[in-house]
Amino acid sequence: MISISELSPKKRAFLTGTILLTGTGLSCRVLGFFYRIFLSRTIGAEGLGIYNMVHPIFGICFALCAGSIQTALSQHIASHITKGRSIFRTGMVISMTLSFVLAFLICRHAEFLATVVLMEPRCVPYLPVIGISVPFAAFHACINGYYYGMQKSHVPAFSQIAEQLVRMAVVFWIASSWLRTGRSITVMLAAYGHLIGEAASAAFTLFCFFVFPPQKKIAAESLLAPGTAAPLMALALPLMGNRLVLNLLSSAEAIWIPSRLQMSGLKSSEAFAVYGVLTGMALPAGVK
Asked: What's the CA gap between 261 and 37, in Å, rounded?
């Protein structure tokens, strides 16, 4: 049997990164499961259902401006190591531009999205908070894509843990503060938790980017690599389309399930409570 020490440096980095990402992914799943339990007991099953109805909007935005570009960055940088920093800057400019546009549209048209698209007016105050989190998500996704391209997965892995731990700690603190002051706990707690988690991950990856840079700076390297945007987007667009379809289906599910439950005879609060139990507690406990 071949030991890890006998593998080539490239294969060793790949295997180590796989094990690290698997371990941190599992840890985040476990932490997230207990976080969902806490949310269900503070904002209730109905509140959790409303939050899970809003969250697919973020998923659509992430698919458009972050997730696909992160994967494209990692692939393109891995193929052109010497131009890594320039490719990263190009991807960052594209991603952040898209993220700010999407955040603006969500904040500006929150009422339209809630009443016409989601068909639930109670979602209006939570959409701007979700919208503000989009640029943070795009920022750390691009940095993570740079690290993946350089086969350095430790920063992306630990950023997931940092995001989950900071989110849980701050949300617990906010909830206890609201209880002490007599303020009622609403779905806004979950929305704040999402924003705090994305901001914490962005801050962590930014810190690591300067302290543990993924690549040494090359003196003669240009600010932006000429002709990089086109091949980068050629890689990103198919992934973007795939992720967008999946998130649109998820959004349709979030809209249709509560409405079908109401058509079956349940009241609005009962329908969202059932949906919250299903998506907030039952599904995270499974293998999804």
From this structure: 23
